What we know:
The structure is a single chain. The chain is an alpha+beta fold and 422 residues long. The chain folds into three domains: 2-143, no CATH class; 157-249, no CATH class; 260-388, Nucleotidyltransferase, domain 5 (2-Layer Sandwich), CATH 3.30.420.10. It is built from twelve helices and 18 strands. It has helices spanning 2-14, 65-79, 117-131, 159-168, 198-211, 219-225, 234-249, 309-333, 349-356, 361-364, 373-380, 404-413, and strands at residues 17-23, 37-39, 52-54, 83-84, 91-96, 99-106, 109-114, 133-138, 141-142, 145-150, 153-157, 254-258, 265-272, 283-290, 293-301, 342-346, 383-387, 416-417. The strands form four sheets. It has a six-stranded antiparallel β-sheet, sandwiched between helices. It has a five-stranded antiparallel β-sheet with strand order 9-10-11-12-18. A five-stranded mixed β-sheet has the order 15-14-13-16-17. Strand 5 (91-96) and strand 6 form a beta hairpin. Helix 8 (309-333) packs across helix 9. The longest helix has 25 residues, at 309-333. The relative contact order is 0.12.
Amino acid sequence: MTTVRTLISLAVKKGWDLYQLDVNNAFLHGDLNEEVFMTLPQGLAMVGKGMVCRLKKSLYGLKQTSRQWYDKLASSLCSKGYTHSNIDYSLFYKKQGCSLVFVAVYVDDIILTGTDLEEIASLKPFLHDQFRINDLGKLHYFLGLEILYRPDGVLISQRKFTLDLLKEFDFVDCKTTTSPLDPVEKLMATEGTLLSDPTHYRKLVGKLNFLSNTRMDIAYSVQHLSQFMQSPREPHLKAAYHVLRYLKQDPTLGIFVSTKPDLNISAFCDSDWATCPDSRKSVSGYLVLMGDSPISWKSKKQATVSLSSAEAEYRAVRQVVGELVWLERLLDELTVQCSLPISVFCDSQAAVHIAKNPVFHERTKHIEVDCHFVRTKLQQGLITLQHISTGSQLADVFTKALTGVKHATLLGKLFVFSSPPT
């Protein structure tokens, strides 16, 4: 999804047209490279016992199907001069002089964009001859993401998915809340009555996780609720319902991508030390912006226990720098020259000093070596670490439950809107 958001943001900022294609019965186009047999389908009467069918083409339900479809699509695009990205294999591109065309693929849904409209126009009938495609015209709906075009940019939301989710769980007429989670309530893994039907909770959290592809405001909530998937209890389900009540407040909320041609990358990272009452592990969060448009974010509980808040913050920096290393390579393939070093904003002076000053050995000897690759990237000039005040930390929304007023204030700074700003 980061690749999709980045490609859409780049196209909007550079004024490229976005098109969408849909492949009919995509998995039936794959060629099998091995012998595969299946039992006779119901209703087919054959003489003799133990007879089976040998497949000549792939079918839905085979483990090989998705791989074979990708191989068939990749070989077809490569035969037309396209190259698959080494950073994300769902992305293909063709570069010839000033001509740029990018193809993003997710199973049977395809996005086309670039500078060469003639190449895009010739690619559509080529793919139609190969696979039988539907030309859906301008990009409006992709993987549940709704693209709403405005004169000053586009709004990417999941309005329909949100409304369907509220309807499915009977929360259409519920009372609303101003924040995804109650900042006072602390959820424990073993407190409360076990749910008689845990699949209900798991289904809800799974759909909320998909919704966080555009709703970064619930990223922390989804991460927190996902910790209890194995043995969900009544307080956990109540907290998940609280998220639904928050979504009811504004189902049309999404991220706004402006047409401002600012392609500079910046990042914010934060952590909440020892916030998990069961494991005492910390939660990290980061946000990556292209200009003023969010393209990547994450809220995640750290894998190990941090002995200090400085260590927890340093691990948060490591996570966002790892994302920036990958993103810088992706942008290079998208012909975007990142203005280096990339600014990484952190509200911990100690974490900044640890990255810049190896003399801090006595305080950092227990930290794993892999965390210190932050220092390497700092010395190589990929990033520059800058300290900001806690009040200006945009990644705060990914590490803890906030009050309604502070939550709403941060969303405005994150360019999360129900309609584009005037």
